[in-house]
TrEMBL record:
InterPro entries: PGG_dom
Protein name according to UniProt: PGG domain-containing protein
Keywords: Membrane, Transmembrane, Transmembrane helix
Organism: Acer saccharum (Sugar maple)
Pfam families recorded: PGG
Domain of life: Eukaryota
Membrane-spanning ranges: 98-117, 137-160, 181-203, 209-230
Domain PGG: from-to ranges: 89-200
Entry annotated with the keyword Coiled coil: no
GO CC terms, sorted: membrane
Amino acid sequence: MGGFDKELQATYVDEQDNNMLHLAGKYPESPSASVVLGAALEMQRELLMFEEVRMIMKPSLRDKQNSEGHTPKELFTVTHKDLQKRGETWMKSTAKSCMLVATLIATVVFAAVFSIPGGNNQQIGRPIYLDKTFFKVFAVSNAIALSSSSISILVFLSILTSRYEEEDFRMSLPLKLMFGLLTLFISVITMMIAFSSAFFLFYPSSERLNWITMSTAVLVFVPVTLYVGLQYSLLRDIIYSTFCSRNQFNRTPSRTI
């Protein structure tokens, strides 16, 4: 788009004295189907688009009032109030569900610390399988699972206690949700690894490759596969909306007309 066309569009005013920034800030009464998953991410898209249009506007037009006395920012806030509320509801619902899963994982792996595979040597209080490789794998993976699930709980708790201001939907809330989902994913994987390593501890080396142990090992990772499959779309939308959305506008940064 040439410079003249950009300037012409940026200075456009309709019959209600709405300039391009007013129009960008006005949420449609009958919006088309959202290309992102969840009202919170749709709110993020709207904020990013509004900011992109604002950057190409002349500074004198960014706070210009229309015939109803609304600046573009005020019009954005008024017309997106319902979307913001729906985004808050969606974000809280997602955080509560994920927090429940993270809490269950933390409970399980914490209890595993006090019921280690094989028990302890009663005379010296040392784990019987301490020198076994699978026991070391169990200990490390269990510790990672406990740590990551605890972090996930704290992240989702911070989402639930957020103020849910308009600007929170731009970066803060999506990043928290993404980080919470990733740490939850790590905790699921490491919990399954801890279970598998504890399971293999009780089998002699010669029996670890029979059909029982191998089928068990495969079944253990079914939850991991399900989690990835079910949460992939959400993670993809968060990452794309947060880090890649700006590229679709194809503008030169910090350039105004």
